[in-house]
Records
---
Amino acid sequence: MTKTMTYTQTTALITGASSGLGAEFATRFAARGANLVLVARRIDRLEDLARELRTAHGISVTTLSKDLSHPGAGAELRDELAGRGISIDTLINNAGFATSGPLVEEDPAVIASEIALNVATLVDITRAFLPEMLASGQGALINVASTAGFQPVPGMAVYGATKAFVLSFTEALAYETKAADLRVLALCPGATRTEFFDVLGSEDAAVGRLQSASAVITTALRALDRRKTPVSVVSGVGNRVLAAAAQRLPRPISLAMAGSAVK
């Protein structure tokens, strides 16, 4: 990848866009001139954000209220947008959630939904929009992974495993598409001050200092602005140190460290 990232006269699709990292992505892409498609279940929040961004930046913003966790959601979304004459240059797979606690105590239905949204939906939507993004050659595929993906995480076993999948999937896809003009990036935040911990029910699972959503998205944009976008980027110096250590230490040691860090 040798040319600069394009924003103006392109369209970015952002899932999980009603708050947190998704809303921050929307705000920052809008400021750079990109048109937006914002997808989440909470349409009232999407509409509020859309009005704000249209007024501030004079861009087009399409909002869609959808539960993406069912099979075939990617094709449905692609077909609906095609019917409106909208093609996608950049896809930001941000939708997802976490559960915590020993697996034996978790609700099977909830963890099934967690796997479906964090893994199956991300792959489904990526596959649905990848052909038009490759044809466009002006945008990026950004999958939100996590520092939890660098090692097993006892107490958040399912979440950590889903994010390890996202990281592995994105790295492989970057290799598959390396000859194309498409930036492919796995964004790996650590603990971030968003509604993530409200859904989780506690900040006890946070490891290290919480970052702001703005700081995390700044990391992503700096990666996209590089002439050669890295396949993955970890947000925050402390998080980068921990992620590097997890990859270099013997597996039993990194596992024990993660187990003691997550309360």
Note: Residues 97 and 199 are 8 Å apart (CA to CA).
---
Amino acid sequence: MTLPATVAVDVGGTKIRAGSVIDGELAHVRSVPTPATSGAQAVLDTIAEVTAAVVAEASGSHGGESAWRIGIGAAGVIDPATGTVVSATDSLPGWAGTDLVTELSARSGLPVRVVNDVHAHALGEAAAGASRGTRSSLLVAAGTGIGGGFITDGHLLTGRNSAAGHVGHVPSAAASGLACPCGGTGHVEAVASGPAILNTYRRLVDTSDSPTSAPNSVAGHEMAAPAPGNTRELAAAASAGDELALRAFDIGARALGSALGGISNILSPEVIVVGGGLAEMDETWWAPLREAFAAELIPATSGTQLVKAELGQDAALVGAASLWNAEQRETR
């Protein structure tokens, strides 16, 4: 008997993860660096190599013959109907315009389906994570950037140009005048992403050092540990009671919470699932997020749940594999 088997792949700007999915079980997961600076062809070659390695390992350990196919969640705006990268950021130079289905089918000899990586996360959480069993859900990935994926009745909303889900690019009063990585200003990602929160902290430090800063607002700050150099270090400073770090996370969390409340009033999902690096924080981030979210809800949407993602980085792999489920189709 030939069993359907999928190599699920998550392609990001810094690493590529892949694993086998047979009978719904994720296994043989491996991770390799993304050769981003070497261009799209090098990235495609690496995907093909790690895919072949997963197939070889899984075939050797799994009794019985399998018919393999590939499901991919990839960075960039992806047209799932054609498998083409519509647009991409500078984290993957030359990625835009790449025909992933044609290129990887030629390299592997296997059928390929592809979707955006955050959309894959949404599919994964809906299939086996925090939003399983719901009819509608919004997955929000909050970390280096802020993205999203909306699912209703088992269908992924992709929208015109496959661009649906750019949660980080809704306007936010808290981000007024702040530059966003997309080239615009005033978007919630400019104040609520991990790097943006770190930038807020640095602005607060600069302001507090001025002669006009409030007395005792940073008491003992100059005697504190060296300034945090990344979001993880900033989170540690907040947990240790650093007043400005706590304020920076509060500002970012409230901005995102307000944005999600507004989006909930538009889409009215059963649940909003929040994943990504920021979601791993404690109540320093979650408490103001929930408070600001609840404050924006109208009575009709007041029952919308805001919960933490369950699958972590495996969500994209589970979601990529689900592209081969007969019932899974995207909604324009």
Note: The domain at 136-308 is CATH 3.30.420.40 (Nucleotidyltransferase; domain 5).
---
Amino acid sequence: MSDFFAPFAPDPNEPRRRRFKPVPFRVIAPNLITLLALCLGLTAIRLAYEGRLEVAIYAILVAAMLDAVDGRVARLLKGTSRFGAELDSLADFVNFGVAPALVLYSFTLSDAGGVGWAGALVFAIASCLRLARFNVALDNPHRPEWQKNYFVGMPAPAGALAALLPIYLFFLGVPANSEVASPFNLAYVVVIGIMMVSTVPTYSGKTLGKQVPRERVLPLFVGAVALVALVVSFPFAMLALAVLVYLATIPVGVQRYRKLARRHAAEQAQARAAAVEIGDTGA
């Protein structure tokens, strides 16, 4: 019987088979950036409930910066993947939906009791719905090229940073966490949430800066250095100013969008009329 079940001695020189294919680092790198941003968003929640609001705001701000970088890094390294896209959406929901809602609830919305919690829920759910709609819109092959310069509604990172305006004002000396200010903060947060799920077009700025004229390169460097210096020296004043300027430019973007939409509709009507005329001539 021992001849039938002889002991098996594997060849030490035989190469081991890989169970899974190795993943290139260019695919892993963008996902690491996304996970780092997710850690910052979750940490912001903890910091807020520890009373460290200033550091919590910084964490969400850095998470927004990393969110703007990970997609560009993926395209630069040619490491885009379906997994990365899904991970980015889930991280955005936590960083720009859940984290700002809980930070605001710990800061001011809790003064309104259950109504304040409802406002926090509205903002978080609006962020989730906005991200889901954004993912679906990416698969639309009939979207005109000019519409890619606009978001449908307020993007989640911009909505999160805009919703935190009462905290910026608080650090600037405005009593934004009092019982009197709480109803106004609640209404403001709900309006920002509605803006995220609305169909109001907002300028994306994706094509901004693709080509910079040579004579503007040095002024651009000087302006960037000055902007960084101002943000480092007066972070909450610059954040509040950026939010107010962003909100003020939304009507301008809407007007520009409608103008481009009318032009696009007129061009399509002319193309259809030309096609009908050519058909009648051929007949």
Note: The domain at 25-207+230-274 is CATH 1.20.120.1760 (Four Helix Bundle (Hemerythrin (Met), subunit A)).
---
Amino acid sequence: MDYALILTVLTLITGLLWVLERFWIRRRFGETESGPAHWLASVASLFPILLLVLVFRSFLFEPFKIPSGSMIPTLQIGDFIVVNKFSYGLRLPVLNRKIISTGEPERGDVMVFRFPKDERVNYIKRVVGLPGDSITYRNKVLFINGEPVEQEPLGHWEGEGLNRNPPGRTPIERLEYLGEEPHSILIFPDQPDRGVRTWTVPEGHYFVLGDNRDQSLDSRAWNFVPEENLVGRATWIWMHWDCGRGCVVWERIGDKIQ
């Protein structure tokens, strides 16, 4: 469901009703407490609220829910996150056209974007390749411009609740030193690689991977994210809901997304 389109349409409709009610209905019928004019005024009164929500959601921050485990352990199923919409430029709602440039994705960012194969769907992955980079994934190690990205083993990872390990399988957690801050990734040693490939990132595009490297549908499968598909940078977790762990998981609330 395209919430941006729905919100924009509702804002336009109530805005037109607000103008109609204020500059025509009131002058013709005066203040009324019943009838069509009163109903029109009630609907029109929603316009300032919808406008505020539209501006906040389109240009400042937007909430998202994590539906899959492709970013475990950084983000888990049941996480509700806040996405900074002005990190990569201010864009018109629905049209997604950049009107003000405020920054570009950096290597290591956790980024939300419209899936290139179906732009009605939002995806979240980690930026690993910038325009012009040569990206290789071999033996579960990321290579950027021919240099391996440092990894540090942390031991076995045990998931809980919605994020429990697949039956009979235990992934290995590694610390990857990609951007300014290291982040954790998961590797399944028993799962073979998809084959060694090298990609050269075109101008105006980005290469992204899930932190759950063997359980993620990402740029290794469908190539690059165009700049015009960017939505924003994931910043922090404001709620985690998993009734397999007592419903509200308090220790994840407020965590900054690295």
Note: The chain has a mean pLDDT of 90.
